Amino acid sequence: MMKKSSKYLATLLLAVTLVAFRSDSTYENEIKAWHQKRVEALKTENGWLNLAGLFWLEEGENTIGGDTKNTIIFPPDRSDAFLGKIIVKDGKITFQAKEGAEVHFQNKPVTTIDLLPPGKPVVLEHKTLRWFIIQRGDKFAIRLRDLESPYLTGFKGIETFPINPDWRIQARFIPYTQKKVSITDITGRTYEQDSPGKLVFTVDGKEVSLDAVGTRERLHFIFADQSNKHETYGGGRFLDAEGPDADGNVWLDFNKATNPPCAFTPYATCPTPPKENRLSVAILAGEKRYNDLH
Does the keyword Signal apply (predicted)? Predict the structure, then answer.
């Protein structure tokens, strides 16, 4: 009887082990597939790897092109000498092309065009360059892309920590009725964002918390942790999570922690972690430091 019982227990243990192995293997494959999509998105035309410049505009006329006589100098090996001028006046921003300049919008030659119409931004094209207007506070800038940027052509992927399901942590969502989170970006601009709530969870026996921004349905976190000193990007990382379930629980999967755009290019304007989200523990999961750009 004892032999049969021992054999049954051994068989049961093997079955449980195989199920756990398949479960861990499935989870690991899901994370790998998710991360591959994340990498491919960085490499697209709208990704972060092809940023080639960030130029703040002044009121009045701002000439652009590869010649040093321009107000704003595009990469001279990528741009004709003089492309035209961007005019900032009374809250309007327009582009006037220099006669004969090969500047296009949606594959059609441009003479004069409004760069801030309602809806989607206007993206102008010249050879491998693309540019459009961004706004930060009351300031406007040209965001320049180069489809053959060395940051893109030299990209070889992002190193990550080994995928570990233990870093998928259940957290308790505590809603806020009215709270603003103060966030400063790398340009020094500080702004307030609404927070739907905070998450409380435990790492290595220590209770910690993160304040969310975004919506209650889709939570976003800008966080710092002790791994930023050596293993991960010094300016912190990002993490997204679905909103709380009916019991007020949220799953935080730190295997999906990502570097901010500033880890890949000096031309982004990333937010830095707010004081509420500077953790006293090390999160050894997700993306590692990239190429020591910063």
Answer: yes
Amino acid occupying residue 282: A
What's the number of domains the chain is made of? Answer: 2
Residue 91 amino acid letter: G
Name every residue whose Cβ is closer than 8 Å to that of residue 51 and which is 6 or more positions away in sequence: 143, 144, 145, 149, 151, 261, 265, 267, 268
Contact 99, 106 (CB under 8 A): no
Do 180 and 258 belong to one domain?
Answer: yes
CA 230 – CA 225 distance, rounded (Å): 11
User: How far apart, in whole angstroms, are the C-alpha atoms of residue 79 and residue 128?
Assistant: 9
Token digits of residue 80? 């004709």
Structure tokens at 246: 């009916």
Q: What rounded mean pLDDT belongs to the chain?
A: 92
Provide the domain limits for residue 213.
157-277
Rg (alpha carbons) of the chain, rounded to whole number:
24
The 10s digit of each residue's pLDDT in 42-76 is: 999 999 999 999 999 999 999 999 999 999 999 99
* pTM recorded for the entire structure: 0.85
Co-location of 162 and 235 in the same domain = yes
The SS3 assignment for 128 reads: coil
Q: Which two tokens stand for residue 257?
A: 């922690």
